[in-house]
Structure formats: structure tokens, C-alpha cells
Amino acid sequence: MSLDSVYEEVLLKAKKAKEASKLLAAVNSETKNKALRSAATAIIENKEYILKENEKDVKMLRMTLGEVPLIDRLLLNQERLGEMANSLVELSNLPDPVGEVIEGWTTRHGLEILKVRVPFGVIGIIYEARPNVTSDVAGIAIKSGNAVVLKGGQEAINSNIAIVKVMRKAISDFLPEESIQIIENTSREAVKAMLGLQDYIDIIVPRGSANFIRYVRENSKIPVIETGAGNNHIFVNYDADFDMAIKIIINAKVQRPTVCNAVRKVLVHNKIARSFIPLLVKSLEKYKVRIKGCPKTIEIAQDIEEAKEEDWYEEYMDLTLAIKVVDSMEEAIEHINKYGTKHSEAIITSNIEDAKLFTKLVDASTVYVNASTRFTDGNQFGFGAEVGISTQKLHARGPMGLRELTTTKYVVYGNGQIRD
Amino acid sequence: MSLDSVYEEVLLKAKKAKEASKLLAAVNSETKNKALRSAATAIIENKEYILKENEKDVKMLRMTLGEVPLIDRLLLNQERLGEMANSLVELSNLPDPVGEVIEGWTTRHGLEILKVRVPFGVIGIIYEARPNVTSDVAGIAIKSGNAVVLKGGQEAINSNIAIVKVMRKAISDFLPEESIQIIENTSREAVKAMLGLQDYIDIIVPRGSANFIRYVRENSKIPVIETGAGNNHIFVNYDADFDMAIKIIINAKVQRPTVCNAVRKVLVHNKIARSFIPLLVKSLEKYKVRIKGCPKTIEIAQDIEEAKEEDWYEEYMDLTLAIKVVDSMEEAIEHINKYGTKHSEAIITSNIEDAKLFTKLVDASTVYVNASTRFTDGNQFGFGAEVGISTQKLHARGPMGLRELTTTKYVVYGNGQIRD
What we know:
Two copies of one chain form a homodimer. Chain A is α/β, with parallel strands linked by helices and about 425 residues long. In chain A, about 45% of the residues lie in helices and about 20% in strands. Chain A has a seven-stranded parallel β-sheet, sandwiched between helices. A four-stranded parallel β-sheet of chain A has the order 5-4-3-6, sandwiched between helices. In chain A, helix 3 runs antiparallel to helix 7 (about 155-170). The first copy, chain A, is globular and about 70 Å long. Chain A starts with a helix and ends with a strand. Chains A and B meet through helix 10, helix 14, strand 13 and strand 16 of A and helix 10, helix 14, strand 13 and strand 16 of B.
């Protein structure tokens, strides 16, 4: 396909999305909810078609890369389609963010100022393998009154096209079907074309590797909300409940080691290092966790690989975990703020003062006291679904749901006021 | 000065600001308020010094450009210093945004989630002639727990350095004086250096011409909150109160024609065009407003210059105003959404239905019903002061005060929860 035709496809779809967004912004909640429920039903009713298209993708991936973990991310089945449909139904049951009056006041001139939540317009999202992102993001976009331009990965292209086809047909009785657009060309040129369309796309959310996200940030003419990596820490304080700490670390490390809210590093207070680390290492070994450690950790637990300087920066995408002994909570906080990626950080402690100070001084989207980092997730937070997890500070931070796809507008009522 | 030394200055000051920001984030409200009041007092006490430095700037500008309107923007006097001090006192009386719990809920696992307002860290602001921006922005930054790197224009450099010097000394009993940094090199190279320091500066707010803001957006590695131009409209509906409409248009056009919240275009409903336009033109002529018009306007009022296509895009920075007759409110809205800059838009009408529809469908930071556009201003909104007026949709829209210089953090309390 020529560069021109790539650009043509992206431009045409972005324009259609912009047109649809004008209608979508004024649609009432009940109509949007009906469309979402209709899309949920359609996904279940068209499961054979979607699964057949998904099979093509899986087959192709297996042929090219063999039996890789990516296949599990790509694979759809009846259960996963059910979850996708459920997310859409859950979204239909959530309050509509559009039109929410966030605050309001009357000025000394008697002007009544309302700060009202309104849609962005068109959301552009660039993502990878998981096909459920397609229905989740399309659903969140519709509910928040936005049109969406979806750009998924080549490995999931047949699945994504099928899901969008089914959803567009299902919503068309209630909303413009052009509200959901999918870019069928999955090349880097298509991404580049999207990033230049600031007149038609209002914000871009990139999901993927740190390198890819940097590329988007540096090349986009459209404002970007970045999602990021999760080099997450759990700090075990001197007064931690050992059972709780071990249970939480196992959950955060083992349950799904490739996701961004898994734990990658454990920091242990020096006072309890000699008693806690051997217990932790024994528990982790049952789950075949590969442990690395600082010199002090190695001295205590032996037979452990040494963690090098670059290890402390790394977001292990497998069952590796590094342990470091720290002399104080302050040292833990400093370490986290230096090496962390500002995603999810936790302290296990039983005293309020340290809990409060830790949550205050650790710079991250989500800071936990006595809970697993795995909860940093739109669904777990109660948002129905999520667009991604923002690790930057502008506009949105943490899991992004409906509200994060809205902006605000001031509406001011007067009766002839002029400025003096 | 060599490029290296420009970069050195900017880097050193940004680093100092980052260090100071860590302390500033944890300072309590009363301490910040004392620092602000101390800075207000110091500005008054050091008025001779500041006015003397300001005189140097004014003299230089007069020598190079002659008697230009810019001089009025640059000029300080006792009254203006009083206003600057007042803004700082007002800020000290406003609630502290830091630590505000915006929302909170308990999940089905019993996790308690709090969404807490926290400072960004370091704010970078790049602005032009008006020296009051220096104290306003430094004050807002401090109150919101942020350090600030100020980069003002060459024409105000002596004034800005003097104000910062006085403020730094005044806050030093309460806060790190390094919280306020001013870049003394005012070249474009200094701007470029700032835009690359994403490790030390958290957000950049550019103020100035559309070209300059585009330059910043396209060259910044730091997230940018754009402020923008004000090609603002007042739409006079068929049922408008003529006296009110004329009073509001005169205020919005004449009071201060160079500011961004002044009106540039008036749209008149066809039904009242023949009766209203002659009255409006007569009133505007008293204030020496230069009127341009669409063909229909010219037919009605005669002796009026024709507005060309490019006129409808232009943000007149003088006493020029263009008038256009429209057949319906829908046409007015379409015109505004096509030619406007999404700053401030107004309707003069007496029926609720049109008022509601207009505020809903016009895409702008602030939409007025029966009031002057001149109220789009942090001070008029009750924010004490403002960092600028955002005309983009990400993070902040409209006048930016204390809250707009904060981000959020999720703090999650559990008692051992793991994800199932």
C-alpha cells in the first residue's frame, strides 16, 4: 500500500469520527446505554464469527513466532467474550460523566459560574495485542460522549476488525456507527498519520513499550496521555505482619507477572531482614520465582544472584524479583523515587505514622498500604473498564475510566454584567 | 554568552527548583500563607527599588520602539505594585488545594481508595512583558506546593529580577528561597534549554503569540498546557434586550481591546439586524471603533468596510470589530466553532432554550449567557490570580488558578487484600 493511501485511510476515518463526535456529544444517557447493551448482546450473538477471525490471528502468530506468551494475550474464547460483553453492560450501568456539574459558584458581580463536564470529541488510541481493549475502549469512548479512532496491532487485526464490525452494527440503531473507527493498516506510517491530525483527533493515548510511547510523545501534534511501565516496589517495614507481607508479595509477583501492576522489587527494613528474608525466599521458591538481591540479601539468604545497578531500573516481565535491604523507610522512599516508574508502590506496615508519610512522599499514581499492587486497574477500581493506566501527571493519573475521557467547560449566566 | 553557558544557567536553576519542590510539597498551609503575606509586604516595602528597576526597562523600550502600547503593559507604578501585593494576600486567604481529598470510596474487596490532590513539582512558565505575571505565578506556584522556573521577556528583565529578588528574600524565613527561580538569559536558546529538561520541570505553560505557543508545543519534551488567542464572538439573538446587548458589546470591545478576553466579532440574528445594527454602529462609533461587516451588514449600515474571509479568523488587537448577520442560532454556532479560538463566546438572549443549546453546542473554554466576555479571568472568577487561560482541553480549560497547578494521587488503604 502506498504512503498516500495509508494517509488517506487514516484521514478519512478521523474526519468521519469528528463528524460523528458532534452528534454524540449531545446524545442523552439512556440512548448511549441502550447502544452499549446492544453491543454487549451482539458480541455474544456473533461469537462464532469473532472467534473464527481470532483463530486466523492466533494461527498466524503461532506460525511466525511459535508458542509464545503473546498468544495468551491474543487468544479469545467464550469466557473472554463474556467478560468483554460484561464490561459493556457494566459501563451502561455507570453514571454518565457528561453534563456533570463539578462545581459552581456565584461571583461578586452576581455571575453564576458552572464547571460542566463535556466530552473531548475524538479519542485516538494506539495499542497492542489484547482484543478486549478494542471493545473496552470503544465502550468507554461512547459512554463518555466521544468518538474513537482505534489503531490496534497487526497480530490482532482480524479480531479487532470483527469486534468493531459487530459493535458498529449493534450501536447503529441508537448512535452514528461512525463513532467507532478502526484503522486497518497497522504500519508505523498509519501511527505517524494519526499523530498529525490535530484538527480531527483531540487526544492520543498510546499503550505499549516505553520506546513506543516516547516515539508518540516526541512526534505527536495532538496532546498525549501517556501510559507507562510498572517497575513497582513493595516495602516491608520493621513492624510488618510477615504473613500478610508474604501473601501480598506472592500475589503481586506470581499471579500475572507480565502485567504492569505486578511487583518487580521488594525492599525490606534492616531490622527484620534476617528473620523475614529467609521466609520470603522459601515461599517464592515454591512458585519458581527467580530471585536477585543486594549484597546484604545475598549474605542473609545465600545462593542468590546479585542484582546489578541496571536491575533496579528494570521492569522484569517474567518471574524475576529483586530484593534490597534498606536501613530506613526514608531510604526506601528515596530508592523508589529514584528507580520507580511512578506506577504502583506499596508499604506493609502496622503503624499509621509511617503509612501516612510513605503515601505522602512516594511519587506514584497509586500508593498502597497493606494491599497488593495488582489492584491498580480500572475494573478493580470500579470504573467498569479502563483506557489504560496513566503514569504521568497531566490531566489523568492512575487507571483512566470514563471521567478521564472528558474535559470541562465553564458556563456562565449573567443578566447584563459588564466588567468595571 | 555561549550556548553552553545559557544551558548551564537553565539546568542549574531547574535542578535547584526540583530540589526545593521536594520540601515544598510537604509544607503545611499556614507556613505557605505566611510566606505569601511576607512577600506581599516586601513588595510594598521595596517599591522604590522595584520601580527604579522597572524604569530602566521602560526607558530601554521607549528608546528602541518609541511610544508603543507595550509600554503600558510593562509599566509599574505604586497602584500596580499594590495590586500585585493584594493578589498574594488573596492567595494566602484561599483554601490550600494540596491534600484535598477529591473523592473516595470503598471497593468490593474492602480497599479504601482516596483520590488526593498533590503538587506537580516544578512549573515552568514562559511569558512576555507584564511584570505582575512574575509575582502572580510565583504566588500561585508556592500556594499550590510547586517550585517555579520563570522565563519572562527581555523587555521586562530588570523588573522581573527585582521582583523575584524581593520575593525570594521575603519567603526565605518560611520556605526554601530556591522555590522561585528566574532565568536571566532571555534568548530563544534559554527557552529551548528549558523545553528539554523533562527530568526537572514537570509542566510548561507558554504565554504569548500563537506562533510562539506552537513552537513550544512542537519542541517541548515536557507536557505543555497551552494558553491561546481569543477570537471571541458575541451572538445577539432575535429576542435580545438591545440595551443590554450594546452595553455588553461596548464593554467587551472597548475596555481593553488588546487582552485575550475582549470581543472581536458580533453575530446578529437576521430577524433584528435592520433595527439593531444601526443602533450598535452608532454606539460603537462614539468609541472610535473601526467596524467591518458582511455584505448584509454593509447593506444595512452603509459606509462600512467589508470583512474578508481572513477577517473572520483574526484576533484584532485594536479597536476593530467585525459584524456578521446570521439566519439562525445554528448558523451562529457553526460560525463560532469554525472561526473561533475556543476561548470565550457569548449569547445575548432572553429565552432559556436557546441559552441552554448555545452553551451546550459552542466549543469553548467559557460560554456566557447575557454577560461580557471580559470576565474570563482568574481574578474575576475568584481564583485570586491566574497562571493563564487554557484554550486547550487537556488537564485544564479556562482560567488556571491553584487547582490547575496540581495533579492527583490515589492512596489505597487495605488490610492484606490480594487480587483473586
